[in-house]
Amino acid sequence: MDLSIILPVVNEGENLRQLLPRLKAVMEREGVSFEIIVVDGGSSDGTPEIATRLGARAVNERRPGYAGALETGFAEARGNYVLTLDADLSHEPAFAAKLWRSRHEADIVIASRYIRGGAAFGGVMRIWLSRLLNFWMRHLLSMPVADLSSGFRLYRREVLKDLELEARNFEVIEEVLVKAYAQGYRLCEVPFTYFPRESGRSHARLLRFGLDLMRSSLKLWKLRNSINSADYDERAFYSLIPPQRFWQRRRHRIAISWARGAERVLDIGCGSSVIIQSLNNAVGLDISMGKLRFLRGRGIELVRGSAFALPFSDASFDCVISSQVIEHVPFDEVLFRELKRVLRPGGALIIGTPDYSTLGWQIIEPLYGALLPGGYRDEHITHYTRESLTSILVSLGLVHEKTAYIAGSELLMLFRKPVALESRSIRSEPTTALVSAA
């Protein structure tokens, strides 16, 4: 089935008499195979019976509230895409065709009142309060969307599979969008004109919705500023916080300068960083599907895999970058052997990690953890120094060439794989690495 259409309702029988035939006509004109799921929240006007007579499937919400109705609809949906809209005719059913035609543009397509070409009719106070809330949420949560509170959306089914929703009422609209974006899914907006409901009484209370949204936004802010957000690394590069922006850009400049001229580059633990986006003919490898998902469409070859068993043949790359990775995993020599194995003789290894022997990092890390809880500080489980890291890599036959520091605290080193390394020893290492990793 192409599409599941979800309509959360409470006493919307009169509006459904108009809406359902119009929705069906639109979908049939578009040649879409579809189902309409009416999720009832305890109507007393015969809404479920009316919906069934008009060819929809009526189900009861599994938990009370608008969020519960959406969750029920998502669980019941069988289509490859899921369309959500209000049943009060404020969302023009004919516009669903525009959303459907835009389905290949992003994973979530939003009918937007607040981008160029969009409009909203209704009470002045209601419209301006809605604009204010959307402006505040957009900037607080660093979301690339003008209309976060639009419930008229088309989702690719995959987006809804693993979402864990906590909201109870209308704030779920923002929660779905923020959590999906944090998992690396793409968003786009299509200009839309909003009209007030045709008949009946609205079940949304704007003041209550605003308060619920404020509470929800604090939880979502923590998510957006944690390493679990797919765009965490890219956002840090453009951060409004001067020290964070300086740090990211200094790391970027060193790594890119050292890698310049390499024909084939592997960035291990690439995340969503600007480093992988600046490299040419590069492969980005990460364990996080969300971060790889975020980089789709940027002309980068992407692989999900583990640094302990790199899915590449021997001597595949002229340059390997491993920046801010090794401190996040338990120490195992296999990791460093794998870095060497995939390097061609004469190739460069660029490796970066905090230097725990420096006074600077001993001061910075606790401060960073206090200011940005949920950031990388809590993920640092193996502590290296310049001396210990040099000893490990030199013992594996790599030659140290350069060292650089960021703010006297974060260490970046350039090592070279000798050209004269015996091919026999190179061939023997993958087996050892894979056995150790297993």
Which terms summarize this structure?
single chain, 438 residues, alpha/beta, Spore Coat Polysaccharide Biosynthesis Protein SpsA, Chain A, Rossmann fold, 2 domains, seven-stranded mixed β-sheet, 16 helices, 16 strands, elongated
Give structural notes.
By secondary structure, the protein is of the alpha/beta class. The protein folds into 2 domains: 3-224, Spore Coat Polysaccharide Biosynthesis Protein SpsA, Chain A, CATH 3.90.550.10; 232-437, Rossmann fold (3-Layer(aba) Sandwich), CATH 3.40.50. Helices cover 40% and strands 20% of the residues. The chain is built from 16 helices and 16 strands. The protein has helices spanning 13-30, 47-53, 66-76, 96-101, 124-140, 157-160, 172-182, 206-224, 232-237, 242-259, 274-278, 289-294, 333-341, 359-371, 386-395, 423-437; strands at 3-9, 34-40, 57-60, 81-84, 108-112, 119-120, 153-156, 187-191, 193-194, 265-268, 282-286, 301-304, 317-323, 343-354, 399-406, 410-416. Strands 3-2-1-4-7-5-8 form a 7-stranded mixed sheet, sandwiched between helices. Strands 12-11-10-13-14-16-15 form a 7-stranded mixed sheet, sandwiched between helices. The model is unreliable at 421-438 (pLDDT under 50).
**CATH architectural type of the largest domain:** Alpha-Beta Complex
User: How many beta-strand runs?
Assistant: 16
Biggest β-sheet strands, sense, barrel: 7 strands, mixed
Provide the CATH top-level class of the largest domain.
Alpha Beta
Order of the strands making up the biggest sheet: 3-2-1-4-7-5-8
β-strand amount: 15-25%
CATH topology annotation of the largest domain? Spore Coat Polysaccharide Biosynthesis Protein SpsA, Chain A
Structural class: alpha/beta
In the CATH hierarchy, what is the superfamily of the largest domain? Spore Coat Polysaccharide Biosynthesis Protein SpsA, Chain A
* Arithmetic mean pLDDT: 90
The shape, in one word, is: elongated
Q: What separation lies between the terminal Cα atoms?
A: 41 Å
Low-confidence region ranges: 421-438
Number of helical regions:
16
Looking at the chains present, what oligomeric state does this protein adopt?
Answer: single chain
Number of domains: 2
Relative helix content: 25-40%
Radius of gyration, taken over Cα atoms and rounded to an integer in Å: 26 Å
